[in-house]
Specification:
The chain has about 575 residues and is an alpha/beta fold. The protein has 8 helices and 21 strands.
Length: about 575
């Protein structure tokens, strides 16, 4: 995970949140993720950071997006665990010398007056329970898992962590446990202390061993003495914890694998989350091109599953849904470098699909050790050493895909009763030249009709989804409708349920900013790719103060005996004028 950014989280239909367990539940079997006693719980997740692009703190910034996502997601693909930023861990030892460290030099800042504490409260209060289980099971609260961040080494702010003595590392874990377990709203903690390294019995190793002990309520070996309150009525099994690394940390036969096994299984309350992004060792800004990434992610998933099974430890994955420092659409900075094939970026959805396909191909969903998939991220973008990466947060098309594919791809899902003719390619016109010069002011979010109101909607018996973004002096919005599309695949026509592109809307702006743009006056033209376009304005069809454009595309239409490919004009976009 990248610390200098913003992020988010999900829950899956199997398993319960920690707070839903009963006090008399038998000890959990970590190998049985599908049992009600599963612990740590099985849950998809999303990392999120509550700061806007200007850096202002906005607690609960992603509540509405998560609730709307879950309303659209099918069972097994929900967002039901949130990884909100909790605090940093920092060490300030005399002379930067671990031998001179005292407990007062070892810090964490998850206190009632901290922003992390406030974020936790906002999400606990604002997130809707997961309530779409087809079996009619009771709604499940979202699992609350704050992230404790740290950068280890001479360039970080947790510089002496690995060099701490066993006793001081355990004392540091006690100090952290006291702060964290004091908040009864927390179900678990993700420790994002990077780089993860337990190749020796170092400070990091002993810290995690003591965290496991404390979170189980067994601080001093006496289960009846739990000075930090990690076990309570809402958490009868205590709290769980995870750490973020790569599959190499558990390669069979290594000291690291043995030490990870000790940490995770000593009290049965830990799990490992393997990153499926930043899958290379190259400097930040060097693109991991899609062909290379596809091969790497397939291998990483296969290794993680096989090695976790050998060690019998629970595991989860983190996938790219917004830009990382190596998998991105755009990079702006001094260190941006093309991939091996010369590419400079890819649509984020391509990376997401490659990761999800690797998970499906390896059948991790059926593995009782598997604990879910988490997405990176809901935030406003990352910047590493002066290099800015986009897109962020996770784009709408990625979220739409994940609502039906994240962990459990749909078999049969409700759609429109009859196939909806649709283009075989997505037609998205980009005005050229741009309708207006770039301005520094940010347009106000649209609040108009379905086509310019962000979020999920239910109108005229159909499910709709709209997402918007600033575009020059206006805002543009993409609208999708849930339905059944006929696709021509493998030499035959096949019905597929999913989100279908409906239209692109440019929110009302002065006519002057659209001067000489072909999307804003009556005309017909042929684009550079050979497709024909036509625009119509101020008619009964378009209404006053607006234009509509159609693009030529190949679509599938029903015939008396089946389906046929037909070339026709398809509605694509709306331009609205404010005067």
């Amino acid at each position: 995970m990248v610390a200098c950014g913003a992020a988010a989280s999900l829950i899956i239909s199997l398993g319960l949140s920690v707070s839903a367990a009963q006090a008399d539940t038998a000890p959990a079997d970590p190998l049985d993720a599908n049992s009600e006693a599963a612990f740590p719980p099985r849950a998809n997740g999303v990392w999120m950071y509550d700061r806007d692009r200007a850096g202002a703190f906005d607690p609960g910034r992603w509540i509405n997006l998560i609730n709307k996502y879950n309303a659209a997601a099918t069972p097994g693909n929900e967002l039901g665990q949130v990884f909100s930023y909790g605090s940093d861990m920092e060490t300030y030892c005399e002379d930067d010398d671990a031998d001179k460290c005292t407990l007062d030099d070892l810090n964490m800042y998850y206190t009632p007056d901290s922003v992390g504490y406030e974020s936790t409260g906002a999400y606990v209060d604002g997130l809707d329970p997961i309530d779409n289980d087809p079996s009619g099971a009771a709604a499940r609260p979202v699992v609350m898992t704050p992230v404790i961040d740290g950068r280890i080494g001479p360039e970080g702010y947790l510089r002496n962590f690995n060099d701490l003595s066993e006793s001081l590392a355990r004392d540091y874990a006690d100090k952290a446990s006291k702060e964290l377990c004091a908040d009864g709203r927390i179900d678990g903690i993700q420790f994002d202390l990077e780089p993860f390294d337990v190749t020796t019995p170092n400070g990091q190793y002993y810290f995690y061993l003591q965290i496991a002990k404390n979170f189980a309520g067994d601080h001093d070996g006496d289960p009846g003495n739990d000075p930090y309150g990690c076990v309570d009525a809402a958490h009868p099994q205590g709290r769980f914890f995870s750490f973020f690394t790569f599959a190499a940390a558990i390669e069979p036969g290594t000291v690291s694998a043995s030490n990870v096994h000790d940490v995770v299984t000593s009290y049965g309350n830990g799990l490992i989350i393997a990153s499926l992004y930043d899958l290379n060792n190259l400097p930040a800004g060097t693109l991991n091109d899609l062909p290379t990434y596809t091969g790497s992610v397939q291998q990483e998933v296969a290794n993680m599953k096989a090695w976790a099974q050998e060690l019998e430890i629970p595991y989860a994955f983190g996938i790219p849904a917004s830009a990382s420092a190596h998998e991105y659409t755009t990079c702006d900075g001094p260190d941006c470098r093309p991939g091996k094939n010369g590419a400079t970026g890819y649509p984020m959805l391509d990376y997401t699909k490659a990761a999800v396909t690797a998970l499906h191909d390896s059948a991790v969903d059926s593995d009782p050790l598997f604990r879910g998939t988490s997405i990176w991220d809901f935030g406003e973008g990352i910047n590493v050493d002066g290099n800015a990466f986009q897109p962020a947060p996770a784009p709408a098309e990625v979220l739409l895909y994940l609502t039906h594919n994240l962990t459990r791809p749909d078999a049969e899902q409700p759609g429109s009763p009859e196939p909806t003719p649709a283009p075989t390619v997505t037609v998205t016109a980009q005005p050229s030249p741009a309708p207006a010069p770039t301005v520094t002011a940010t347009p106000a979010p649209p609040t108009g009709d379905l086509y310019e109101t962000p979020g999920f909607h239910y109108v005229n018996g159909r499910k709709w989804m709209t997402t918007c973004e600033p575009y020059s002096v206006t805002i543009r919005c993409w609208t999708y409708i849930w339905g059944t599309q006929v696709q021509y695949t493998g030499g035959q026509f096949v019905k597929v349920n999913g989100w279908l592109f409906n239209n692109l809307t440019y929110v009302a702006a002065p006519r002057s900013v659209w001067k000489d743009n072909k999307l804003a006056y009556d005309n017909s033209w042929t684009a550079a790719d050979g497709r024909r376009w036509r625009t119509q304005c101020e008619t009964a069809l378009t209404g006053r103060n607006g234009c509509r454009s159609w693009a030529e595309a190949t679509v599938i239409e029903p015939t008396g005996s089946g389906y046929a490919l037909v070339k026709k004009f398809v509605f694509n976009n709306i331009v609205r004028f404010s005067n």
